[in-house]
Amino acid sequence: MAGSFLASRLSDAGHAVDLYDRPVQTACGAAPCAWMATRDFPAVLEGEGLEPEDYVTERFDAFLFQGQRVTADLMTIQKPALIADLREGAGVRTGPLDPAGYDRIVDATGTARAYLPPIGGDDLCRCVQFRVRGGKGEVLPAVRYVRGGYAWSFPLGSDERHVGCLSHLADPSGLIGKTGFLDGERLCACRSRLRVTSPYRALPFVSGKVWGVGEAIGCTYPLVGDGIVPALVSARLLLDHFEDPAGYTRAVLDAFPAMQRERALLERMKGGRRPSPAWLAEVDTSRLGIRVGMASAAGLILKILAR
User: Fold this and answer.
1) Which InterPro entries match (predicted)?
2) What is the reported pTM?
């Protein structure tokens, strides 16, 4: 997503741009993603002169967590359609990239981080996802806690859902069947990994003529896993600091302080400590349209620990 966005904007600005992508082995033609966007998605697209309603398929004012209704502001989007529109008129190359042939390389390769230096202590969690039609799926998005992570059922419209699971501690393919989300006809399936390192642990963002964006530099919320809006924001920041690598690094770190807090909470949980209501209260859920007070946090924690 971030790479396609940058290719479009740089071409519009008069730069000669070659867009590279590896063949994606998914039915939708896009990298694995739940297609759930947070409340800032429309504003980010409008700020770039794009019409968000062209891509929003379903809007939700709540979701179900462990069967409990929680107020929210979320939406599912047609991510492949947005990527296709951003790439309109641009040829996509699939062969090897020769760095010597370019003045600037943007590493938008996600978890591969193919051109930036490796991250010391990098942290990738496993994910599995299905596209499902029919069944008894909820009208609202639904989330259930599983060992070391969570499972989701996100309505896409036309009686279809994305059903998936991520876990920091176990193989999610062995957990998702216990959620009850996988009823209905399975149309396709994919597996992936999610970088949960956070930008603060994913430095450098710039190395020589290589600049990173999106998940390649850790712009994904470590606990919740949302990365669509952060990817687009990081791409805009790169454009705004195109000749200022230090300024770009500072801008990215300043843009996502909540990712650092989520990373710290994740490390506590991976260290074997049980979550507490106070922990949930530390998570900034405003981007999801959620306000979690201490009483609500306590109730959610009790539901998790009751499993």
Assistant:
1) FAD/NAD-bd_sf
2) 0.92
